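PROTEIN DESIGN WORKSHEET
SECTION A - STRUCTURE
LENGTH: 286
TOKENS:
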């Protein structure tokens, strides 16, 4: 029988392209961690971004992971089937005054940042300069009534203030205890204009709902964990352990990415390689 101390891990790919070697590494590490501790391994499909996700890629995820020898529990949670749950959490945060509508386009933000050239928290994310943070409720309402589209951002200062001196530290299996540095990400978007939720919100809720207690994922998401830890505190959710593993690089020494069409698992399979060839390549002991 499952007890709360059972290790529960998950691999949570987004079906926006074919899985590559980096995904295989991450999925195998997750499964291995669960196996070592006689725990459970779950697969979750993170398909909230309907502008980029495709069924064809989702089907390929099942096929490629099964080929690799992975087995996961049924049913697989698909985020697109749980949008109402994300809305409830947003409503909770909104009712506590922790969110604000942001009407900015990328260009608006770029213009405001000007040539100051701030160091982005992640390669993809520059800190939001707060243009809409202090709009009055009347102004926001008027713009919404006019049909302007908006995202919902977390008011970071208020959020931190609202949890008082609650401990926001978290533990990484490789790097040890981490003090929270939510400031690295600033006022993140929790509901995008088009999809009305976000990676940060959905991932935190799902991990809690699925009782995941060990999150194994690439070190590119290390910074995001600071915001996830804050969201856990705000939504009164448990704190899992983390293992942010090194990223697998391609022959040129650069990070693999679906958009770069890095060597996909299917390319390797079609080239005649066996799953064992891939597993041996990683020498998994991270
Ligand atoms: N869905 C995310 C991705 O494919 C991973 C999310 C996570 O592991 O937290 O990059």
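SECTION B - SEQUENCE
RESIDUE ASSIGNMENT:
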């Amino acid at each position: 029988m499952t007890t709360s101390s059972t290790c529960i891990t998950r691999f949570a790919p987004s079906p926006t392209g074919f899985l590559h070697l980096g995904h295989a590494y991450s999925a195998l590490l997750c499964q291995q961690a669960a196996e070592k501790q006689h725990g459970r391994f779950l697969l979750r499909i993170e398909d909230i971004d309907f502008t980029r996700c495709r069924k064809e890629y989702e089907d390929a995820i099942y096929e490629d992971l099964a080929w690799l020898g992975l087995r996961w529990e049924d049913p697989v949670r698909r985020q697109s089937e749980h949008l109402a749950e994300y809305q409830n959490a947003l409503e909770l945060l909104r009712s506590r005054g922790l969110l604000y509508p942001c009407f900015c386009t990328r260009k608006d933000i770029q213009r405001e940042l000007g040539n100051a050239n701030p160091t982005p928290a992640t390669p993809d994310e520059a800190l939001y300069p707060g243009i809409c943070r202090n709009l009055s409720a009347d102004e926001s309402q008027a713009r919404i009534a006019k049909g302007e589209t908006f995202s919902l951002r977390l008011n970071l200062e208020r959020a931190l203030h609202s949890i008082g001196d609650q401990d926001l530290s978290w533990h990484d299996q490789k790097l040890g205890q981490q003090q929270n540095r939510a400031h690295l990400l600033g006022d993140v978007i929790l509901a995008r204009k088009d999809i009305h939720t976000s990676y940060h919100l959905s991932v935190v809720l799902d991990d809690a709902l699925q009782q995941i207690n060990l999150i194994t994922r690439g070190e590119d998401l290390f910074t995001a964990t600071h915001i996830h830890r804050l969201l856990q505190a705000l939504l009164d959710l448990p704190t899992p352990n983390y293992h942010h593993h090194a990223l697998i690089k391609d022959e040129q020494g650069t990070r693999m990415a679906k958009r770069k069409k890095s060597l996909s698992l299917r390319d390797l399979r079609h080239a005649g390689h066996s799953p064992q060839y891939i597993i041996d390549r990683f020498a998994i002991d991270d």
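SECTION C - NOTES
Residues 12 and 44 are 5 Å apart (CA to CA).
The two ends are 29 Å apart (CA to CA).
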